[in-house]
């Protein structure tokens, strides 16, 4: 049995296959996912699992060099923005319109759907290198 923190086989597989500059997204239960993007659906109930729980789990194994957040998170969900900034204080952030974020999901290896039910709780993680 796998000893590391990411035990979901689909998430573990996607992370293992990622290279430099590849992207992985984590988001709320309402984010529309393009048909061509793999969706790993973890949502079981309102808030279960939370966006933050899943983000923390993924960060146990994925080296991230940049994150992308919706511009709208600043006004519509500042508590989540603060939480993300506390979790990843040294990672550069690029803010983009939510409409652009939805389009950018076409360029992600996968989208991990959480049970999060707060607005604009979506992130795109850009893979870095560990050397």
UniProtKB/TrEMBL annotation:
Active site: 20 (proton donor)
Family note: Belongs to the RbsD / FucU family. RbsD subfamily.
Taxonomy of the source species: Bacteria, Bacillati, Bacillota, Bacilli, Lactobacillales
Name of the protein: D-ribose pyranase
Principal place of residence: cytoplasm
InterPro entries associated with the record: D-ribose_pyranase (IPR023064), RbsD-like_sf (IPR023750), RbsD_FucU (IPR007721)
Location(s), subcellular: Cytoplasm
Catalytic activity: beta-D-ribopyranose = beta-D-ribofuranose
Ranges in coiled-coil conformation: none
Gene source species: Pediococcus acidilactici DSM 20284
Any one of the GO CC terms: cytosol
Keywords: Carbohydrate metabolism, Cytoplasm, Isomerase
Gene Ontology biological-process entries: D-ribose catabolic process
Ligand binding (substrate): 28, 98, 120-122
Quaternary structure and partners: Homodecamer.
Pathway info: Carbohydrate metabolism; D-ribose degradation; D-ribose 5-phosphate from beta-D-ribopyranose: step 1/2
GO molecular function, one term: D-ribose pyranase activity
UniProt keyword annotation of Isomerase present: yes
Taxonomy, superkingdom: Bacteria
EC number(s) recorded for this UniProt protein: 5.4.99.62
The protein's role, per its UniProt record: Catalyzes the interconversion of beta-pyran and beta-furan forms of D-ribose.
